[in-house]
C-alpha cells in the first residue's frame, strides 16, 4: 500500500502575522508578539511575520484616509488583512492600548477581519494592567466580528530581561494558550481536520 498523503499537501501554509503596537524599539511588546507568533507558526507548520508599528508612525499620520498613506503602511495593512491568524499586542498606555495601535486598526478594512482568528496579547509595568486584554482589546476586535481566541496572554515587566522573555511562567502561559486554541484554529482554517466532539468534552479540555 502507498503512503497516505498528508492533509496539508497542496495547501498553502497557514500565515500567522503579528502586530506590535509599541511606539518604541526595542520593545517588550514586540518580543512577546514575536514569541507568540513564532510559537503558533511552529505549532501549525505555518509562516510567521511580525509587523512593528513604531517605524510606521510617521506614515500612519500622513493622512486621514487609507488612500493617502504610503506604500509601507499599505503593505502592512494588506499583510494583516491577508493573514490566516493575527497575533496583536500593545503595551498599556493610560489603561488601554496605544494610540498607534488604534490608528493602525482604524485603517484596516471594516470587514477584512470577519471570522479571522485573533490572538490577544498585552504588556504592562505590573499585573494591575492585565485586564487590558479583556476590557479594551477584545471589544475592539468584536467590532471587526473577528474570532478572538479565548485565552489572552498578558506579560508584566518582570517577565523580561534585556527585552527577552525570561519568565518560565510566561513561557508556560504561551504554551498553554497555544495548546488550548490550536483545535479552534485548525477546525476554522482546515475543516477537514475538525476534532471530534470528544476533544471538547474531556475534563481537561477547558
Distance between the termini: 39 Å
- Percent range of helical residues: 25-40%
Major sheet characteristics: 6 strands, parallel
Query: What is the averaged pLDDT score?
Result: 88
- Alpha-beta content class: alpha/beta
Instruction: Round the Cα radius of gyration to an integer and report it.
Output: 17 Å
Uncertain segments: 1-7, 199-203
Give me the count of strands.
Answer: 8
Order of helices and strands: EHEHHEHEHEEEEH
Strand content: 15-25%
Shape: globular
What features would you describe in this structure?
- Helix content is 36%, strand content 18%.
- The chain contains 6 helices and 8 strands, in the order βαβααβαβαββββα.
- It has helices at 28-44, 57-60, 71-82, 99-106, 132-143, 168-189, and strands spanning 15-20, 47-52, 85-91, 117-124, 147-148, 153-156, 160-161, 164-165.
- The strands form 2 sheets. Strands 1, 2, 3, 4, 5 and 6 form a 6-stranded parallel β-sheet that branches. Strands 7-8 form a two-stranded antiparallel sheet.
- Strand 1 (15-20), helix 1 and strand 2 (47-52) form a beta-alpha-beta unit.
- It is globular.
- Mean pLDDT is 88; it is low at 1-7 and 199-203.
Amino acid at each position: 500500500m502507498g503512503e497516505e498523503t498528508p492533509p496539508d499537501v497542496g495547501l498553502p501554509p497557514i500565515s500567522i502575522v503579528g502586530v506590535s503596537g509599541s511606539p518604541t524599539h526595542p520593545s517588550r511588546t514586540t518580543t512577546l508578539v514575536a514569541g507568540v507568533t513564532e510559537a503558533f507558526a511552529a505549532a501549525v507548520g505555518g509562516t510567521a511575520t511580525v509587523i512593528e508599528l513604531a517605524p510606521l508612525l510617521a506614515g500612519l499620520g500622513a493622512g486621514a484616509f487609507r488612500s493617502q498613506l504610503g506604500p509601507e503602511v499599505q503593505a502592512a495593512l494588506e499583510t494583516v488583512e491577508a493573514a490566516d491568524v493575527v497575533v496583536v499586542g500593545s503595551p498599556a498606555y493610560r489603561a488601554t492600548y496605544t494610540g498607534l495601535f488604534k490608528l493602525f486598526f482604524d485603517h484596516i478594512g471594516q470587514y477584512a477581519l470577519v471570522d479571522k482568528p485573533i490572538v490577544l496579547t498585552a504588556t504592562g509595568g505590573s499585573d494591575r494592567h492585565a485586564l487590558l486584554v479583556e476590557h479594551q482589546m477584545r471589544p475592539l476586535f468584536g467590532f471587526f466580528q473577528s474570532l478572538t481566541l479565548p485565552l489572552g496572554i498578558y506579560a508584566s515587566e518582570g517577565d523580561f530581561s534585556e527585552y527577552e522573555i525570561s519568565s518560565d511562567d510566561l513561557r508556560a502561559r504561551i504554551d498553554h494558550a497555544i495548546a488550548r486554541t490550536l483545535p479552534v484554529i485548525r477546525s476554522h482554517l482546515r475543516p477537514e481536520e475538525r476534532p471530534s466532539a470528544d476533544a471538547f468534552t474531556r475534563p481537561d479540555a477547558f
